[in-house]
Amino acid sequence: MRNSSIMIPVLLTRIKTSDGVALEGIAVLPKKSSGTALIWLHGLNSRFSSGQILVKEFSEQCRKKGIAYFKFNTRGHDAAGGSVAKSKKLTGGGFEKFEECVFDIRAMAAFAQKLGYRRIILAGHSTGANKALFYMSRTRDPRVKHLILIAPVSDRSGASKVHGAAWHKKGLAIAHALKKKRAAYMPPEYGIMSPDRFISLYSAGGREDVFPYDRADARWDALASIRTPLAVIVAERDEYLDRPARGIIAAFERHAQWTKSFSGIIIKSANHGFRGKEKELTEAMIGEVSGL
């Protein structure tokens, strides 16, 4: 990986989860280790090789701080991503079972620990933020010393904003009907996705609905269980937000009452993918964890 003056070695590697899923990814190791690793969880249908500019920024800045940087596929990479060895079930963003992200993240943390990194910064972008929060709410993994949620949008609200409320409502009705018939796929207008996955992504109150901004009576149970220091980074012009970025930060301020610390950051003029704002995002993240 090269810019005008710096060449950074990137290791291609593969890990395996306890339920037999192989996850490819990269590891960028510092010359002098601080004992801290940053694990990045990608969003829905993305993959470890996406966002090359951001990968370069993280690689450079993490190495300067002695922080290892890991970015692996989750079983939710791409729309469809192969099968689980033991069950032969399809994975990928359209077919994964959300709660199985625990297997993926645990394998990543174990790999980092095996290489000597005892302190982990767990950072999730978009649906990766849902997974990061869910993982910590379920495991309270003591290796994770800082949790960073990046562009933590509500998939439900985002879908309604992009496609319309009627699309959302009709899609859920179709998904439930197809599930009863044991159908494997949603109609093409709803993307490459199983009925179960559609229901998981877009139903209120489910395990995946960890950012229920639009539900005034929601309990935010996953967030309420977190004690780990937390940072939330929101893109000011995120195209999937159903409210101003400041409203997202305010929701976390209300519900993240038990974390050891909380900080909310808005990256001005940034979109959901932080294109053109990769440096600002990297600086914000490194600033959050520089004391580890």
The structural domain count equals 2
Give the SSE order as H and E letters: EEEHEHEHEHHHHEHEH
**Assembly category:** single chain
- The CATH architecture assignment of the largest domain turns out to be 3-Layer(aba) Sandwich
Mean pLDDT: 93
How large a portion of the residues is in β-strands, by DSSP E?
15-25%
Count of runs of 4 or more consecutive helical residues: 9
CATH homologous superfamily grouping of the largest domain: Alpha/Beta hydrolase fold, catalytic domain
* Poorly predicted regions: 1-5
Cα Rg: 18 Å
What is the name of the CATH class of the largest domain?
Alpha Beta
What spatial order of strands do you see in the largest sheet?
Answer: 1-2-4-3-5-6-7-8
Give a structural overview.
Strand 7, helix 8 and strand 8 (262-267) form a beta-alpha-beta unit. With 292 residues, this protein is of the alpha/beta class. Helix 4 (155-163) packs across helix 5 (165-180) and helix 5 packs across helix 6 (195-202). It contains 9 helices and 8 strands. Residues 1-5 have low confidence and may be disordered. The protein folds into 2 domains: 11-154 and 215-289, 3-Layer(aba) Sandwich (Rossmann fold); 156-208, no CATH class.
Please outline the helices and strands.
Elements: E1 11-16, E2 22-28, E3 36-41, H1 52-64, E4 67-72, H2 101-114, E5 119-125, H3 127-139, E6 144-150, H4 155-163, H5 165-180, H6 195-202, H7 221-224, E7 230-235, H8 245-255, E8 262-267, H9 278-289
Parallel strand pairs: 3-4, 3-5, 5-6, 6-7, 7-8
Antiparallel strand pairs: 1-2, 2-4
Write a short abstract of this structure.
It comes from Candidatus Sungbacteria bacterium RIFCSPHIGHO2_02_FULL_52_23. 34% of the residues lie in helices and 17% in strands.
